[in-house]
Amino acid sequence: MVATRTALVTGASSGIGEAVARALVARGWKVYGTSRNPDAVARPIPGVEYLALDLTDDASIVACAKAAGDVDVLVNNAGESQSGPLEELPMDAIDRLFRTNVFGAVRLTQLLLPGMRARRYGRVVMIGSMLASFPLAHRSSYVAAKAAIRGFATAARREVSPFGIGVTTVEPGSIATGIGERRTHYLQDGSPYTADYNTMIEHLDANERGGITADTVAQTVLKAIDADKPKVLYAVGSNAPLVFALRRIAPRGLVEKIVSRKHGLS
């Protein structure tokens, strides 16, 4: 691999995206980071060129891809964290979540793949979540979106690998990025799910406060980028090696019960 590459990291204004962009700049790479409003980025990283991107707007996605030009590495990180009982999730909220977390990332990938294929090199990293592998009550829309993006990545791997392109998913567990403060909540007044929902959120927020850092996830992303043949999935945090081993050998019902109990649910 040559020393200098060009990367596009979506959602680079905070959290994992910011950590990945900073790590790539430290390597001397040309790095584009995206934000809905680049002028409002609170902690701009020296060496990162910020591009406007609204993943719910196709014209914005096309403009971003055009502005970035030839990109060697795409890290699809931007997204929304959403919670709520399935019965009470507004359809427009689910639609927005999938446009942001899935369809926008897929569209951006489609636009950048031809250049990667022509240059016979590329890396596409989808930032997923371990919740896609270990579903949690009251997070159905988020779980489904992360499972969908992993499905796109897993199925597309064989399509593009003959052209020197590696596609992979990084699934973090609990991360201490303050994402809980930005999570969207949907719970109706007087909801019969209130007690369980509040218990789950309390434990979820506590787990995240004690979770791994964004820099730790960024190092896993770099590992995926550097691999000659990236693995289909990289999991990091929340005792990933142990829990994935348990998932392979334990009955599904037992694993679901363990996940629930970790979040205060019976």
From TrEMBL:
* InterPro entries xref list: KR_dom, NAD(P)-bd_dom_sf, Sc_DH/Rdtase_CS, SDR_fam
Q: Which family does it belong to?
A: Belongs to the short-chain dehydrogenases/reductases (SDR) family.
Which is one GO molecular function term here? oxidoreductase activity
Query: Which SMART domains does the UniProt record give?
Result: PKS_KR (SM00822)
Query: What Gene3D superfamilies does the annotation carry?
Result: NAD(P)-binding Rossmann-like Domain (3.40.50.720)
Q: Does the keyword Ribosomal protein apply?
A: no
Protein name, UniProt field: SDR family oxidoreductase
Domain Ketoreductase, chain residue ranges per copy: 5-173
- EC number(s) per UniProt? 1.1.-.-
Listed A to Z, the keywords are:
Oxidoreductase
Organism whose genome encodes this protein: Rhodococcus gannanensis
PANTHER family registered for this protein in UniProt: DEHYDROGENASE/REDUCTASE SDR FAMILY MEMBER 7B, DEHYDROGENASE_REDUCTASE SDR FAMILY MEMBER 7B
